[in-house]
Amino acid sequence: MKYFLTLVIMLLVLASPVMAQTEQPSQTAQPAATTPTFESDVIKGEKGDIKLTFIGHASLIIEHSGKVIHIDPWSKLADYSQLPKADLLMLTHEHQDHLDAVAIDLLKKPDTSVVYTEFISQQRDDGKVFKNGDSGEIDGVLIEAVPAYNIVHKRENGELYHPKGRGNGYIFTIDGRRIYVAGDTENVPELKELKNIDVAFLPMNLPYTMTPEMVADLAIAIKPKVLYPYHFSETDTSIIVNLLKDHKDIEVRIRKLK
Ligand SMILES: [Zn+2]
Fold first, then answer.
1. Which pick of 27, 47, 89, 161 has the fewest CB atoms within 10 Å?
2. Cα 232 to middle of ligand 1, angstroms
3. What is the CATH superfamily name and number for domain 39-252?
């Protein structure tokens, strides 16, 4: 017992400087609220920078002039309570990886503008409906809703994953740049007519959206200056890079958009 007590006392004496050190409050330690970091790119606008942040899958943030646009936020990918709140919140369609009430609730503030499809308006009443072909300006950003649908890829029961007329892609004109976020679509004829696209986000996963060959076909028709394949799940991104390697006018950027 005596030896045991001596041992305990010795250990306490030895440990005390270490404990004192580790318990010392440090001014340079982690900030109280840790903001998660995600990969971003900056696009030069006519007057300022446009920042694109890649949350993952189909979830993106576009920031310009202090305004924050969230597109298809999905709480499975990020702690949205730690991300900047939305001035504009854009939803492409009603599937759970694009329409997530948890993320929406965390991002909304009293003056957030929400834009969604007519189909989504059957379950929500907090936004403006844009149908395919509609356009409008919100907070100085011109928004055009374009079609997003399948013609090839179907469920076993024959129903298309994304029937025509239900989903939207969006073209944002911000500070003289046109940024196209396609939603879940295939390389359908209307989309091949899109003009003057600076940046395009095109989906590339099976069975729901496009093969790399379909993405290449659409990209060659649209000729965006920068192409981000997104919503690509397990698809091998080297295939699209290879398919477009001779199209020097299209810069393919692979980011964490699985
Ligand atoms: Zn999807």
1. 27
2. 9
3. Ribonuclease Z/Hydroxyacylglutathione hydrolase-like (3.60.15.10)
